[in-house]
Amino acid sequence: PQFEGQTKSKLGNPEARTAVDDVFGKSFDAFLEERPQDARAILEKVILALKARKAAKAAKDTILRKGALDGLALPGKLADCQSRNPAESEIFIVEGDSAGGSAKQARDRRFQAILPLRGKILNVEKARLDRMLTSDQIKTLVIALGAAIAESFDLSKLRYHRIVIMTDADVDGAHIRTLLLTLFYRYYLPLIQKGYIYIAQPPLYKIQKGKEIMYVYSEEEKNKIVKRFDSPNIQRYKGLGEMNAEELGDTTMDPAKRVLRRVTIDDAKGADHIFDVLMGDEVEPRKLFIQTHAKAVKNLDI
Fold first, then answer.
1. Which residue out of 97, 125, 136, 170 is catalytically annotated?
2. Strand boundaries in 151-274, DSSP class E
3. Active-site residue, from 80, 90, 95, 247
4. Is 80 an annotated catalytic residue?
5. Which residues are registered as beta bridge partners of 214?
6. Predicted TM-score of the model (pTM)
7. How confident is the model over 91-127, as pLDDT tens digits?
8. Among 80, 90, 168, 250, which one carries the catalytic annotation?
9. How far apart are CA 268 and CA 272, in angstroms?
10. Active site includes 172?
11. Does residue 95 carry a catalytic annotation?
């Protein structure tokens, strides 16, 4: 069978829908006639679902009627780039105002935009679209990207062809990345398929010996460098806010020096399952996943 939409909530095959309607319809009619109390309860749920869909559509239409930056107050204080060519423009979604301030100073304003987000965004796996669009952070992101959302998504209106998630290299940063990737997977899947979503790779350490400075991106790399030098000065970056603008620019934002990891989905069904397990309502599958993979964790921030 084929299903419609990114959430796969509606059967798409006309012949299958006809067959299902024929088989299910007669039996369901008989069930409703024989059990009026159950029929009334089902009807109430149908009406509630209808109201929810109408509320979601009304909230979405309110957002989508607005232009990219039509006077809407942006809580994240988007610092836009000068270029209006999406192919050469990129936006950094940054964790926190502190790192956002450094990123604004470090950027090349000709083609780099900065959008600081405060804290963790709403978990869209557990929220209806109408509730999503009442979230200032998500509303800000939707309007900044300029391409609408869900069924109204229009790739041709996307304002940036490189969208970079830039968070701290710790557990909280990983959680924020996961929440953002869930949003992009559920509502902006074409952006992942086109290769427009990236994750910045900030350094974990700054190692200095005399005038020589090295930025290190893994524990293994750090251990190798430490063995080469006698008592080097080691600085651990616990967050983006600990880097000044020059350091952040040199290590994480400069196209000639930075390390970006492009987000891809080789197996959409497999990725969908992982998102369901980690971000869904079911506790047991998530608990089993954590227990299964816990031994693979090498570094844990506590």
1. 170
2. 162-166, 197-200, 205-209, 212-216, 233-236, 260-262
3. 95
4. no
5. 207
6. 0.72
7. 999 987 778 889 999 999 999 999 998 878 888 877 7
8. 168
9. 6
10. yes
11. yes
